[in-house]
C-alpha cells in the first residue's frame, strides 16, 4: 500500500523530481513544495502520513523549527529528513526536533522508500553508520578549528579591510580609489598588499576566501566602524598619497587594533 506523503525541499526542482519518482512507485504525493519555511503550514493543513523534509544546511540554527511545530500540532505525521552527509550535528538536531528518520540526499530511491515505510510504521529510519557517526561526534567532538576569519582580519590594516570589502563587491582600482578618496596607485598598492597577506593570486580568489572564512563579514563590520572616525592613515602608520602620518602630534587620527 502506497504512502500518503509530502515532499518539501529548499530546491523546488529536487522536490518535484523526488515527488515524480515516488508517484511512479505507487505513492500518493499530496504536495511537492519549496521553501521548507512553509512546511509546517502545509503539513498541518494536509496531514500526510510521512513528510520528506529536504535541507542542504541541517546544522543551521532554526532549520528544523517546522518539524518542532509539526510534532506539536500533527504528532501522527512522521518526518524524515533528507540531508547531506557527513553532518553528525545535523542528524542529532533533526532527531532532537522530532524527526524519526534521516536519509542521505544521494540515497537511491529504494532507500528513500524504505525509510518512508519504516517511518510510517513508527520505526526510526536511519542507516546504522550515520547513527554511529552522529554519536561518535557528540561523544568525542572534534577540536574546533581556529577562527580563520578573525585570524586573517588581524593581518589586515583598517584600510586593507575596506579595500577587501570593495574588491569583493567587484569594484575596480579606479572605483576603489574614488570611493576611498585616494589615488589609483595607492588603491592598487592596497589591493596588492591584501592579496599578498591572504596568500592568494587574484581578486577573485581573495573574495572567495573572504566569503568562505567569514572574513568578509568581519572586514565589512570593521570598515564601517572605522568610517566613523578619521581614517586618513593606513594601519601601519605610514602616510599614503598625501595622507598625514600618524603620530602624537595628530590628535584626530585613530589607530584600530584587531583583538582576538
Please bin the fraction of helical residues.
40-55%
- Give the biggest beta sheet: 6 strands, parallel
**Which residues sit in consecutive blocks of at least 5 with pLDDT less than 50?**
230-260
Tally of DSSP β-strands: 6
User: What is the oligomer described by this structure?
Assistant: single chain
How large a portion of the residues is in β-strands, by DSSP E?
A: 5-15%
Order of helices and strands: EHEHEHEHEHEHHHHHHH
With strands numbered from the N-terminus, the spatial order across the biggest sheet is 2-1-3-4-5-6
Mean pLDDT: 81
Silhouette? elongated
Protein architecture, described:
By secondary structure, this protein is an alpha/beta fold. The protein has helices spanning 12-24, 39-46, 65-73, 88-97, 109-120, 128-139, 148-155, 158-168, 173-180, 184-198, 203-213, 215-226, and strands at 4-9, 28-33, 50-54, 78-83, 101-104, 125-126. A six-stranded parallel sheet has the order 2-1-3-4-5-6, sandwiched between helices. The radius of gyration is 26 Å and the shape is elongated. The chain starts with a strand and ends in a 34-residue tail after the last helix. Mean pLDDT is 81; it is low at 230-260.
Amino acid at each position: 500500500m502506497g504512502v500518503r506523503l509530502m515532499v518539501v525541499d529548499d530546491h523546488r526542482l529536487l522536490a518535484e523530481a523526488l515527488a515524480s519518482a515516488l508517484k511512479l512507485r505507487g505513492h500518493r504525493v499530496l504536495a511537492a513544495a519549496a521553501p521548507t519555511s512553509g512546511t509546517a503550514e502545509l503539513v498541518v493543513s494536509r496531514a500526510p502520513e510521512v513528510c520528506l523534509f529536504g535541507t542542504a544546511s541541517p546544522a543551521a540554527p532554526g532549520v528544523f523549527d517546522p518539524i518542532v511545530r509539526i510534532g506539536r500540532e500533527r504528532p501522527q505525521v512522521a518526518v524524515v529528513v533528507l540531508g547531506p552527509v557527513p553532518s553528525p550535528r545535523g542528524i542529532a538536531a533533526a532527531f532532537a526536533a522530532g524527526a524519526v528518520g534521516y536519509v542521505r540526499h544521494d540515497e537511491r530511491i529504494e532507500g528513500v522508500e524504505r525509510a518512508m515505510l519504516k517511518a510510517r510504521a513508527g520505526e526510526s529510519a536511519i542507516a546504522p553508520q550515520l547513527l554511529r557517526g552522529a554519536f561518535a561526534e557528540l561523544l568525542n567532538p572534534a577540536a574546533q578549528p581556529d577562527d580563520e576569519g578573525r585570524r586573517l582580519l588581524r593581518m589586515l590594516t583598517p584600510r586593507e579591510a575596506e579595500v577587501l570589502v570593495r574588491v569583493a563587491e567587484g569594484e575596480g582600482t579606479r572605483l576603489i580609489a574614488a570611493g576611498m578618496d585616494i589615488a589609483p596607485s595607492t588603491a592598487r598598492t592596497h589591493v596588492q598588499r591584501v592579496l599578498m597577506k591572504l596568500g592568494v593570486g587574484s581578486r577573485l580568489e581573495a573574495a572567495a576566501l573572504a566569503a568562505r572564512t567569514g572574513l568578509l563579514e568581519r572586514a565589512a563590520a570593521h570598515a564601517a566602524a572605522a568610517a566613523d572616525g578619521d581614517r586618513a592613515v593606513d594601519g601601519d602608520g605610514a602616510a599614503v598619497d598625501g595622507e598625514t602620518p600618524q603620530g602624537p602630534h595628530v590628535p584626530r587620527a585613530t589607530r584600530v587594533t584587531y583583538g582576538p
